């Protein structure tokens, strides 16, 4: 076979292989359900995305639903609804299609970057290197959260437009003193679409500047840094990114879970950021023990600091001899910056989905080693190919964990038995499926792990005993709730309701007002699918730093406490009848507190 024929053969085989493997790795997701983890509120309880009429489009372009402004992503969900209705298989299929398309776009971007970095490499070698780079990105267990979770459609949509933005930019500027206007403005438009899909891509202008340095060589080196045209080219990107950042933070503020510097000190934010940078590198190399929620109960050691210090040191020291490494390091840090501890948001210390774009640079570097004409190229190709093949079953396994809520949270509990939110979500999944005994066991674990406000969890336990027709234990649970927290309205009502069914006297009800109400007015427990509130990413951690000398080796932990929020854009809080007054916001363990109480505010707070 001639070399020219081989080049023609790789022209279509390599990109086809990228698409097929990227799709095949996530095909198990087609059997998955919607999850209670945000899918319920985004899709099952949300009618506003169902269609493309004026009212639906107006909502998509104005809503800060669950702390995100993602109108383009909502439009893709609208097409899903028009095509599939509420069949989750269709939604998962669309996620897989977007991911496969993103993998193909990453292949095209990698090939262009490798061609600029290795001008003497043969086209066939560039295709092989780019194909391996795209597969290293696309076939990895860390991608499972972004692809197998319908809610994270925003990752794969923004990822596609992100890659297309870079591809159009390379077409506009590569080999040109002045950017080609058509491709340049196409790149700007694609960047706008990426921002409207998910604002995590705001750092792309910095990545483009890094690419101008290497491999495009439009800045620095022999050309110098005083090239106004190159800098000014980024003005439209920076303007869009600034607007998206303002809108993105405004959307997050609607959740009420952003903390001031007094509440979360700069030193802790810095430590948490260092932990995140080291954590994502480690999980990229060793993708085991992946969880849907890495609780803020973390251990930060000297190793985390050493990994990040080495990364930054090599990026600086090798900026001339290995510029590709420096560019990849810059892209890694600035892409993760909006979701690191500096801008901490949510109850998680880290999340798999945040790696979707951040690790692209490392994949391109490894692909470059497979394209570079050097003595170890053949061995590199074999090793990387074996790596990709090993990642396929690992990715299948990780995707399978996202099949349903009970499977997902059972896995999270197995990984972190002290993760109270995981126990809560597993309890809710069992409850909704009618497995009341299993739900009660999980709620008991939640109560055990809660240092304060334990009584509220015994209300959940009582409700589940009622649904299981075990009224005697339900009565005991409601009485325990009142013993732990006097005056809980749902516990007061539960005692009266269950005692009436058992034909016994309600007995003492600490903190309950008045005599027993008429039985017809005593509310019933909510149905399993309508648990009063579910902590999600709108919940917020309160973490205290260890003393200074113990900082680097201390065990950072929180005291998780079950206190809901009552923001208008959030799920209904417990209990819905406590509305006599509003206590100021405070932070207690995991959750932000805006307590409405008929029996008085927590200690230290005054009724507003």
Domain module tally: 2
Mean pLDDT: 83
Task: Specify the structural class.
Answer: mainly alpha
Q: Helix segment count?
A: 24
The poorly predicted ranges are 515-522, 529-608
Major sheet strand order = 1-3
Helix proportion range: 55-70%
Bin the strand percentage: under 5%
Overall geometry: elongated
Radius of gyration: 27 Å
- SSE series: HHHHHHHHHHHHHEEHHEHHHHHHHHHEEE
Report the biggest beta sheet as strand number plus sense, adding barrel if it closes: 2 strands, antiparallel
* N-to-C CA distance: 82 Å
Question: Topology of this structure?
Answer:
Elements: H1 3-24, H2 39-44, H3 54-60, H4 71-84, H5 88-117, H6 123-138, H7 144-148, H8 153-173, H9 181-195, H10 204-213, H11 228-232, H12 235-253, H13 266-285, E1 294-295, E2 298-299, H14 302-317, H15 323-336, E3 348-350, H16 355-358, H17 360-371, H18 377-400, H19 405-415, H20 420-432, H21 436-449, H22 455-467, H23 471-484, H24 489-502, E4 555-556, E5 586-588, E6 591-593
Antiparallel strand pairs: 1-3, 2-4, 5-6
Helix pairs in contact: 1-5, 1-6, 4-5, 5-6, 5-8, 5-17, 6-17, 6-18, 8-9, 9-12, 10-15, 13-14, 14-15, 15-17, 17-18, 19-20, 20-21, 21-22, 22-23, 22-24, 23-24
């Amino acid at each position: 076979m001639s070399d020219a024929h081989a080049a023609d053969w790789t022209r279509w085989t390599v990109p086809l292989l990228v698409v097929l493997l990227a799709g095949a790795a996530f095909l198990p997701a087609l059997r998955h359900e919607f999850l209670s983890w945000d899918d319920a509120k985004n899709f099952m309880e949300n009618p506003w995305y169902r269609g493309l009429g004026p009212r639906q489009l107006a909502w998509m372009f104005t809503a800060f639903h669950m702390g995100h402004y993602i109108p383009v992503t909502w439009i893709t969900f609208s097409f899903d609804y028009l095509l599939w209705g509420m069949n989750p298989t269709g939604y998962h299929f669309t996620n897989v299609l977007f991911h496969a398309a993103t993998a193909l776009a990453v292949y095209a971007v990698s090939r262009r970057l490798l061609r600029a970095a290795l001008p003497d490499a043969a086209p066939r070698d560039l295709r092989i290197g780019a194909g391996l780079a795209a597969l290293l990105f696309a076939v990895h267990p860390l991608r499972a959260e972004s692809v197998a979770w319908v809610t994270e459609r925003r990752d794969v949509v923004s990822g596609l437009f992100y890659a297309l933005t870079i591809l159009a930019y390379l077409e506009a500027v590569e080999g040109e003193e002045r950017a080609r206007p058509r491709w340049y403005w196409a790149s700007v438009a694609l960047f706008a679409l990426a921002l409207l899909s998910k604002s995590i891509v705001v750092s792309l202008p910095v990545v483009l500047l890094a690419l101008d340095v290497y491999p495009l060589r439009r800045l620095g080196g022999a050309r110098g840094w005083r090239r106004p045209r190159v800098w000014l080219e980024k003005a439209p990107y920076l303007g869009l990114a600034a607007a998206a950042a303002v809108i993105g933070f405004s959307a997050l503020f609607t959740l009420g879970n952003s903390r001031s510097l007094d509440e979360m000190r700069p030193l802790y934010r810095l430590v948490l950021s260092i932990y995140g940078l080291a954590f994502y590198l480690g999980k990229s190399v060793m993708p085991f023990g992946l969880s849907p929620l890495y609780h803020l109960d973390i251990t930060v050691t000297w190793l985390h600091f050493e990994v990040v210090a080495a990364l930054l040191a090599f990026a600086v020291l090798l900026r001339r001899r290995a510029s590709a490494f420096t560019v990849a390091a810059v892209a890694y840090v600035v892409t993760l910056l909006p979701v690191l501890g500096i801008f901490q948001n949510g109850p998680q210390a880290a999340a798999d989905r945040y790696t979707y774009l951040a690790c692209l640079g490392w994949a391109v570097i490894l692909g470059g080693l497979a394209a570079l004409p050097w003595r170890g190229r053949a061995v590199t190709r074999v090793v990387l190919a074996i790596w990709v093949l090993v990642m396929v079953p690992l990715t299948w396994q990780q995707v399978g964990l996202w099949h349903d809520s009970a499977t997902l949270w059972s896995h999270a509990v197995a990984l972190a038995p002290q993760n109270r939110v995981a126990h809560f979500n597993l309890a809710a999944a069992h409850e909704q499926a009618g497995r009341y005994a299993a739900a009660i066991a999980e709620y008991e674990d939640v109560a055990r792990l809660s240092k304060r406000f334990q009584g509220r969890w015994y209300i959940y336990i009582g409700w589940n005993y009622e649904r299981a027709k075990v009224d005697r234990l339900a009565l005991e649970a409601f009485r325990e709730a009142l013993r732990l927290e006097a005056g809980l309205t749902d516990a007061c009502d539960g005692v009266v309701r269950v005692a009436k069914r058992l034909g016994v006297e309600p007995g003492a009800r600490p903190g309950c007002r008045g005599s027993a109400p008429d039985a017809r007015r005593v509310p019933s427990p909510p149905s399993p699918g309508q648990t009063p509130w579910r902590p999600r990413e709108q919940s917020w951690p309160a973490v205290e730093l260890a003393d200074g000398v113990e900082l680097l080796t201390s065990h950072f932990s929180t005291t998780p406490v079950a206190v809901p929020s009552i923001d208008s854009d959030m799920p209904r809080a417990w209990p819905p009848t406590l509305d006599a007054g509003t206590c100021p916001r405070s932070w207690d363990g995991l959750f932000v507190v805006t307590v409405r109480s008929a029996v008085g505010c927590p200690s230290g707070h005054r009724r507003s």
